[in-house]
From TrEMBL:
<dbReference type="Pfam" id="PF01149">
    <property type="entry name" value="Fapy_DNA_glyco"/>
</dbReference>
<keyword id="KW-0863">Zinc-finger</keyword>
<dbReference type="InterPro" id="IPR012319">
    <property type="entry name" value="FPG_cat"/>
</dbReference>
<dbReference type="InterPro" id="IPR035937">
    <property type="entry name" value="FPG_N"/>
</dbReference>
<keyword id="KW-0862">Zinc</keyword>
<feature type="active site" description="Proton donor; for beta-elimination activity">
    <location>
        <position position="58"/>
    </location>
</feature>
<dbReference type="Pfam" id="PF06831">
    <property type="entry name" value="H2TH"/>
</dbReference>
<dbReference type="GO" id="GO:0003684">
    <property type="term" value="F:damaged DNA binding"/>
</dbReference>
<dbReference type="InterPro" id="IPR015886">
    <property type="entry name" value="H2TH_FPG"/>
</dbReference>
<comment type="similarity">
    <text>Belongs to the FPG family.</text>
</comment>
<feature type="active site" description="Proton donor; for delta-elimination activity">
    <location>
        <position position="286"/>
    </location>
</feature>
<keyword id="KW-0456">Lyase</keyword>
<keyword id="KW-0326">Glycosidase</keyword>
<dbReference type="InterPro" id="IPR020629">
    <property type="entry name" value="FPG_Glyclase"/>
</dbReference>
<dbReference type="GO" id="GO:0034039">
    <property type="term" value="F:8-oxo-7,8-dihydroguanine DNA N-glycosylase activity"/>
</dbReference>
<keyword id="KW-0378">Hydrolase</keyword>
<keyword id="KW-0227">DNA damage</keyword>
DNA sequence: CCACAGGCCTGCAGGC
DNA sequence: TGCCTGCAGGCCTGTG
């Protein structure tokens, strides 16, 4: 259930292995994940070198030496693990309680930095993840990427740009922040955490943070600061490890220990001086955690 | 059996 | 009629 911090942590773990490495063999152990693999998918990758491993929103983007891009989304339960052999990979996965029935893709790699080669294994029990190959120059026009919103990182998430996108919208702040065409990379955990930090109710109308002249209100400036901060803090902690997510080297993220509201229903609000109790509500089918006392 | 889980696409209904 | 918006449902498997 990787959100941006988990995907970024995976990227940092995989980059030293993938960058400069060649796909010697790509093994698809089933014909589909969320979508069927396109015909020739594995063969199209074999023999190609990874130039760089990047990220956009919750997508991992492996740029290939011929200009194409392997785009990978982890869905709700996707994870990668790295090993120098099949046996080591399986032992590692086993230790993490992973079921090898859900090992769906195996990349066999070689490279100057990989004496003896390496294997990168993709495991995804729920199969909401997917991999696609985008031909050179096609990324910006691709329907999955063309409408992605602002990255929630310093310098990219501009309050007035966000105000322009929220103006007039009656939908809840919770739903707006989950909308990947507005801000790209937030998910259910970090929306709750950011709104708690900002002291804003998840039920508030998104457009209520925009001034009449169309610019960002003080509250919206504060919210953008809190979004950037919570994402940066989570990346620094290696993301959050709950049920499925582990880092590429098998270690756990630590940010789950820093949650202020997420999954803390009925617990005391942790804001100094606030005597509220954390509540859970369901918005557009997803749990929201918030303090009704200090989030208005 | 039920509810719920970190994502996101589709289709439908309602408002203008 | 169209366009936009917002929401329920569905995709899968696993866990409590």
């Amino acid at each position: 259930m990787p959100e941006l911090p988990e995907v970024e942590t995976v990227r940092r773990g995989l980059a030293p292995v993938l960058e400069g490495a060649v796909f010697d063999r790509v093994e698809l152990r089933r014909p589909d994940l969320r979508f069927p693999f396109p015909p020739g998918f594995a063969g199209r990758l074999e023999g190609r070198t990874v130039a760089a491993l990047g990220r956009r929103a919750k997508y991992l983007l492996a740029g290939l030496d011929d200009g194409a891009t392997l785009a990978m989304h982890l869905g709700m339960s996707g994870s990668f693990r790295v090993a120098d052999s099949v046996a080591a990979a399986d032992a590692f996965h086993h230790a993490r309680g992973k079921d090898e029935r859900h090992d769906h893709v195996v990349f066999a790699l070689s490279g100057a930095r990989l004496p003896g080669g390496a294997r990168v294994v993709y495991n995804d029990p729920r199969r909401f993840g997917f991999m696609i190959l985008v031909e050179p120059g096609g990324l910006e026009r691709h329907p999955l990427f063309a409408h992605l919103g602002l990255e929630p990182v310093a310098g990219a998430l501009d309050p007035d740009a966000l105000a322009a996108r929220l103006a007039g919208r009656t939908t809840s702040l919770k739903a707006a922040l989950l909308d990947q065409t507005l801000i790209a990379g937030l998910g259910n955990i970090y929306v709750s955490e950011a709104l708690w930090r900002a002291g804003l109710s998840p039920r508030r109308a998104a457009g209520s943070l925009v001034r009449k002249d169309g610019r960002a209100s003080g509250r919206l400036v504060r919210l953008t600061e809190c979004i950037v901060a919570v994402i940066a803090d989570a990346v620094a902690a290696g993301g959050s490890s709950l049920r499925d997510y582990v880092r590429a080297d098998g270690s756990l993220g630590m940010f789950q220990h820093a949650f202020r509201v997420y999954d803390r229903e009925d617990g005391p609000c942790l804001r100094p001086g606030c005597r509220g109790v954390v509540r859970r509500l369901v918005q557009t089918g997803r749990s929201t955690f918030y303090c009704p006392v200090c989030q208005r």
